[in-house]
């Protein structure tokens, strides 16, 4: 850096790939110094979990969108790959940065990285500041009367709602300071996004993702608008029906921080300013569940690998055969709701939440497979694979987590599909081989004889596998 150049500001983006309501970016804009905006692909720092295939696809397109938005605002997105502590330190020295800004993260390995950068900055006379951007209620701010973390969702969410209203979102800066440059007028060198090879190639399985999603901030805003104009008022009932557009589908946009929960919260307030329908409150509680999951991860950094309830270390999981696990992964268990969900997941990178619960229950209870097998598969295949929600939800289904589903709650996939997909709209969309069956027979195709040709027989019986699960859970309960 030219010694005569003004000091610069370095903004380090992570799961906050947006200009709107981005406190670190807004602070940088207010300083007015030459600006470096960097995204670091860090899969090398100790404990940091590498991305799955679906989230890599999303990240590629989200970064493409973000780079264009930053350029339109007068800035530039710099990409670098490697251990974040080293990358940020070297970049700050290279650009003569006096200030390093970022929005806070809450996973254990990520917090250690951030603390290390903050310590290094202090030692070298740089200002380092972090901001609240991606959670409305940070984990250490919501505590029981005894001062500890909540272990049950309902009192946690009540405490959140009894506190201060989430802050108002910040508007995106209209203009950002130009990037800092060296004596020759060149900005810092970065990686070409294609060199990261985030997109699948051989084979390219992303066709269904591309036709389903619009990654990036504009896509997030469109999803929010569509939700407010449609499903929001009937969310309480619509969210359970997989054959209709009854949910927000904002989860991958929240996962990558393309829209903030503050923006969503206050958009609901603006649309329903006086007496919001009960359904809107139910949706807000789903935002609250996301916050609760992040508190769980904050307090239990090994949530994806260790039972939240340690007594489950003694649980007698049964390793499924390779054929059974493959049948579940590929949507060929013989149970239409499970199979439709798993095929939706493979085709679109997403699965309806009601069906997620049924598919997860089938794996961990009917097959008695360790919940970590399912969590790892979802981590690789979901575009909204979230470091907190994914393991917390799997542990909830397994019974090993906080505020967990009771051990005796075993989702019957036939009952679930009859109740929530009575007209089989969802089943027919993802199981075309069953399209010839009527609305009654399609839920139990093994009873339909030749009409279900090409569809597999059930890989396990529901009554027998339910009895085995209950017996196994009872043995754990009895010690």
TrEMBL record:
Residues 168-193 are annotated as: Disordered. Residues 7-136 form the Photolyase/cryptochrome alpha/beta domain. Keywords: Chromophore, FAD, Flavoprotein, Lyase. It comes from the Bacteria. Its cofactor is FAD. Its EC number is 4.1.99.3. One of its GO terms (molecular function) is deoxyribodipyrimidine photo-lyase activity. InterPro entries: Crypto/Photolyase_FAD-like_sf (IPR036134), Crypto/Photolyase_N_sf (IPR036155), Cryptochr/Photolyase_FAD-bd (IPR005101), Cryptochrome/DNA_photolyase_1 (IPR002081), DNA_photolyase_1_CS_C (IPR018394), DNA_photolyase_N (IPR006050), Rossmann-like_a/b/a_fold (IPR014729). It holds the Pfam family DNA_photolyase. Belongs to the DNA photolyase family. This is Deoxyribodipyrimidine photo-lyase. It comes from Arthrobacter ginsengisoli.
